[in-house]
């Protein structure tokens, strides 16, 4: 009996080595060219669809015993490769661990399993008078554990910060089958590191009081006017969440959804403020100070109701290159202007979320077609916004597998060193989600990091890729 057969037999019905099922676990939301995918062993040999903590413990013990790499996975709703195997082995699917374990309405906390979907959690909290503090724009599909493992900000981050700021306690299972509880600074090393140091089996989240939002939308003629408004809003208006979209993104949204764009030029800023804190007159006055024009209430409501699934703009594509980064709010306008200058031939869209402390999380969309011959070359354009952001004091949003070469800058040197030391001590054979801290090695040059090669290659190709525009076919 092989090691693989032994694992399947021991784990029973939660495990499978069926080839059709295995192929459904060899990718995530991202669209990567085949030449890159061919450089990693991205198809698992075994999938374990864990239902309980005991399933996770037994799977990890078996992986350690038989030397199988383990890739934890939620819904794989990110495109960074964090949930894709780099050395085959076992995928540990946590999406069936989706129970709400307990709610403490007095202290406004909730304990959940990692596979809980953010939108489902919001609905489950409502009878207790609570709601999520933060959630991603992919809330209808993204899991709590997956967002913590990747790190992220989104809806609610202007008031409540990142996912890390709202996780109070976690349980983590290791390769020896033990489960330990961590809180405070002890949790930091597990945040953003894609399960490469252990598998999170429970999270305790801080919640907010469920309260209706007062919704506002305003048009601004330029990025600097929009960012000036946001600076003032954070200081004076106590907003829960704020988002920005460029006219190009509004056009993509309109085409994807089959309606006219909300704005034809400039920028749209949307605010959600708890009704108890809202002052409509103050919002209008602040917008006017920055040359803004308040938009009708139905537009504000439509933007809030459509806050999920920004990637639906791919329907206007048929594909979209995405550059994602953080930028200081004060440098947002200069960064955007440089991006537009660097990519004059492309159809660009910007969506951004304001983050507590004067930061913006920015997504740049470049419409393209993954099925065309020059797409692998044009993909380098997605790195141009990130490199421009770095010149303005910004940085990468997440690492995963494809950007693991930037992990030290994304995590910070101290956190990266701590994570690496802990990895060496607890997982000396590199079985837990290999390739997510420093990137997988190339099959023919294992001492060369694939993610490092991607960063170098895109820097070299970027000047050429900026000249290779994609033109969408005109609608018939």
Concise summary:
The chain is 32% helix and 22% strand. The chain contains 17 helices and 18 strands.
Q: Can you walk me through this structure?
A:
By secondary structure, this protein is α+β, with helices and mostly antiparallel strands. It has four domains: 3-93, Uridine Diphospho-n-acetylenolpyruvylglucosamine Reductase, domain 2 (2-Layer Sandwich), CATH 3.30.43; 100-209, Uridine Diphospho-n-acetylenolpyruvylglucosamine Reductase, domain 3 (2-Layer Sandwich), CATH 3.30.465; 213-396, Vanillyl-alcohol Oxidase, Chain A, domain 3, CATH 3.40.462.40; 404-465, no CATH class. 32% of the residues lie in helices and 22% in strands. The chain contains 17 helices and 18 strands. The chain has helices spanning 3-11, 19-23, 34-37, 53-66, 118-125, 144-150, 157-160, 223-236, 247-257, 280-289, 297-305, 332-342, 375-378, 383-391, 407-411, 413-426, 450-465; strands spanning 15-16, 46-49, 70-73, 90-93, 100-104, 109-112, 130-132, 167-173, 179-183, 199-209, 213-220, 241-246, 267-274, 293-294, 319-328, 348-355, 359-368, 395-396. The strands form three sheets. An eight-stranded antiparallel β-sheet has the order 14-11-13-12-16-17-15-18, with helices on both faces. Strands 5, 6, 7, 8, 9 and 10 form a six-stranded antiparallel β-sheet that branches. A hairpin with a 4-residue loop joins strand 5 (100-104) and strand 6. Helix 8 (223-236) runs antiparallel to helix 12 (332-342) and helix 12 packs across helix 14 (383-391). The longest helix is centred in the last third of the chain and has 16 residues, at 450-465. The radius of gyration is 22 Å and the shape is globular. It starts with a helix and ends in an 11-residue tail after the last helix.
